[in-house]
Amino acid sequence: MKFFLDTANLDELKKGANWGIVDGVTTNPTLIAREGRPLEEQIRRICEIVDGDISAEVLATDTEGMLREGRALAQLHPNIVVKCPLTRDGIRATKTFAQEGIRVNVTLCFTAAQALLAAKAGAYIISPFVGRLDDIGSNGMDLIRDIALIYRNYGFKTQILAASIRHPIHVVEAARAGAHIGTLPFKVLDQLFNHPLTDKGLEQFLKDYAKVFQETSVG
Ligand code: G3P
Questions:
Q1: Which atom, in ligand 1's list, is nearest to the CA of 163?
Q2: Residue to substitute in 136, 170, 183 for testing ligand 1 pocket (most ligand atoms within 8 angstroms of CB)
Q3: Distance of CA 185 from the midpoint of ligand 1 (Å)
Q4: How far is residue 84's CA from residue 77's CA, in Å, rounded to a whole number?
Q5: Among the atoms of ligand 1, which is closest to the Cα of residue 107?
Q6: What gap in Å lies between CA 63 and CA 88, rounded to an integer?
Q7: In tens digits, what is the pLDDT along the chain, a chain of 219 residues?
Q8: Which of 105, 102, 100 is nearest to 85 (CA)?
Q9: Is residue 14 flagged as an active site residue?
Q10: Is the domain defined by 2-194 classed in CATH 3.20.20.70?
Q11: Any idea where the domains of the chain sit in the sequence?
């Protein structure tokens, strides 16, 4: 399972990249706006930090506008994946981008029917929003399982990216459900490391060794 960071914050990206387990980045207009720099400038900086797929979302809502913006974004760096919303215009743009060899992450997916549309249009990635479904009392992980089954049935190559992840259990459940990618807020990625028994066990190892050899360093 690939781990992407769902953030445009450069400090979080540097910390995550330093752990050596971050495979890419997703952004959206909200995350970009939070950092206060124009989209293309922030995306350029992100491409310098993480060597992997970097999703950059168009702002236009009409097909021609999406194509214009997406082609410009794709020119910024080979790792750019253009993000389009799952609308009629977004699917039409996805189809054209796929024919032009521009990779698309189709975002704001909330049903298996929508995911079918994205795969048929040649999407590189589909982003079902697990957390936002959970937030309204639906089971977001059921959607991941449905999409994985349907894509397997027809051999669709579109990668399933579990998005809107709220906590470590979402990550584990998405992996169980067969998502290819999980995009995590930095806080959730950091939480994955934590267990009190790991900390306690390490502390005891070092204490036991130090009792015999005084020094805590091995050798
Ligand atoms: O970036 C797409 C998705 O991960 C947004 O998540 O937390 O705004 O529902 P969230």
A1: 4
A2: 183
A3: 8
A4: 17
A5: 2
A6: 8
A7: 999 999 999 999 999 999 999 999 999 999 999 999 999 999 999 999 999 999 999 999 999 999 999 999 999 999 999 999 999 999 999 999 999 999 999 999 999 999 999 999 999 999 999 999 999 999 999 999 999 999 999 999 999 999 999 999 999 999 999 999 999 999 999 999 999 999 999 999 999 999 999 765 555
A8: 105
A9: no
A10: yes
A11: 2-194
